[in-house]
């Protein structure tokens, strides 16, 4: 009985040491200087049902970069889905450093026509959650931002699409635009969920 009593404080100490560890920590996404290609392997998969891609993002001082002024507004890709050629039919979540802030955007191609725009801004060090919904039934791309107060996603933009393909490619992070990373650039990502 004395051994059990002596073990209880030891077990409590071990549990307290590990209780602060995040079971799914933010992972850095690093673009080395000069990189201008997707990170990792992109494998085609069937997506016959509605799909939701959810991701948490955090940016820091390593996310700040400078390009020639004509290229600074270009978007860097985070994730999304492409149905066939990425420049034909795709929906992607993107980011950029512009006007001394991080902007999060939508970036779509529908039948070869590109549309993009800002859906949110995020301050350095802040963690925010985003979602791209691809509703096959209603043929709709939907970009949403998690709202901490309402504990739910708030839709920021919807766009119709017309392609009929179910074979999609999950798009990996990519620096650019048309320019490679001017220096080592990074952001942090967690919880890439595809449902």
TrEMBL record:
Keywords: Signal. Residues 1-21 form the signal peptide. This is Lipoprotein.
């Amino acid at each position: 009985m004395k051994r059990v009593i002596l073990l209880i404080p030891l077990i409590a100490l071990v549990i307290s040491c590990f209780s602060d560890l995040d079971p799914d920590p933010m992972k850095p996404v690093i673009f080395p200087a000069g990189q201008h290609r997707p990170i990792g392997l992109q494998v085609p998969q069937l997506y016959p049902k509605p799909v939701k891609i959810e991701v948490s993002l955090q940016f820091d001082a390593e996310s700040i970069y400078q390009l020639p002024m004509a290229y600074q507004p270009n978007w860097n890709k985070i994730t999304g889905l492409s149905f066939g050629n990425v420049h034909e039919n795709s929906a992607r979540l993107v980011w950029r450093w512009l006007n001394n802030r991080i902007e999060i955007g939508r970036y779509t191609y529908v039948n070869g026509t590109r549309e993009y725009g800002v859906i949110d801004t995020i301050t350095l060090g802040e963690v925010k959650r985003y979602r791209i919904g691809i509703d096959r039934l209603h043929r709709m791309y939907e970009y949403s931002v998690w709202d901490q107060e309402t504990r739910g996603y708030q839709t920021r933009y919807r766009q119709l699409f017309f392609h009929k393909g179910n074979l999609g490619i999950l798009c990996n992070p990519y620096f650019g635009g048309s320019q490679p990373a001017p220096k080592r650039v990074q952001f942090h990502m967690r919880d890439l969920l595809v449902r």
